[in-house]
Amino acid sequence: MNWKEYAVVTEGQCVEAVAGIFHNLGSGGVSIVPNRSEIGQIVAGIAEEPVIPTYGEHDLVLIKAYFPEERDILDELQASLQLVEENFSVCSRLILGEVKEEDWETSWKKYYHCFKIGDRLVVKPSWEEYKAQPGEVVIELDPGMAFGTGSHASTQFCLRFIDQYVKGGENIIDAGCGSGILAIAAAKLGAAQVLAMDIDELAVRIARANIKMNSLEEVVNVEVKDITEDLAGFKADYIFANITAEVVFLLIPRAAELLSGGAYLFCSGIIDSRWPQVRQQLESYDFEIRQVLQENEWMGIVAQKNNSV
After folding, report:
1. Rounded to two decimals, what is the model's pTM?
2. Which option is the CATH number for 145-305: 3.40.1160.10, 3.40.50.150, 2.30.30.40, 3.30.450.40?
3. What is the pLDDT of residues 139-158, one digit of tens each?
4. Which CATH fold topology does 2-103 show?
């Protein structure tokens, strides 16, 4: 299959809005590049005249998404981006490209290698060899075109939380599972049952393949679901939400219903400018903030549901 690549260069404060546009349009994978030099290298590879302008005081980000070549989203995307620019008073740049799936895989695999998160977790691309050291837990991963290689700060925050908090025997929901990396990590650390879900059918297909690669089919179930609509009555000890502040905000009321007193919600993919609203929402639904991690503008949060009185 060939894919259309849509790359938007904009300010960091707009990353959630642009990622949300791509998700709403049904993207087969969204990636975010927060480093200015990396943006220059990427744009140089897909644009005829790569010029990275400066937008005020905010760092630039590049948000890339992929759609099947027969799907034309250009008019909808441009209209939505115009609204973002007006709402945030920014400029953005849209760059179009075409990618063959085999070329896409080759181009990013050469930059993706084994790495360790926390005390125990090692993320190992399926095409690399790695000998686990005593105490290490290895996650075999082939992200395909789904979000979740583990290299982005938002995913690493959640992996650190999983390494720190999951002790074994828990029931877990992974909301917006992408490649399945968080679900796999939890299962490898002893979770009793993990329900992983995503509204993106391609992500679900890739996550299922990764679950099978790690021999976790009996522990992890992957489904096309929307946690805000499809989980009435379900109970969990943990919910992972590595998505965006906007979606986390909407998720919190449902998470409050699904989590018993003392249970945890891991929130990530939040930029610092949106943290006050998310924090207020958490506190209004009886969550207590237990831990906060931050790298540049990105934040990851551990919130615990208070015990009922």
Report:
1. 0.73
2. 3.40.50.150
3. 998 876 556 677 778 888 99
4. Alpha-Beta Plaits (3.30.70)
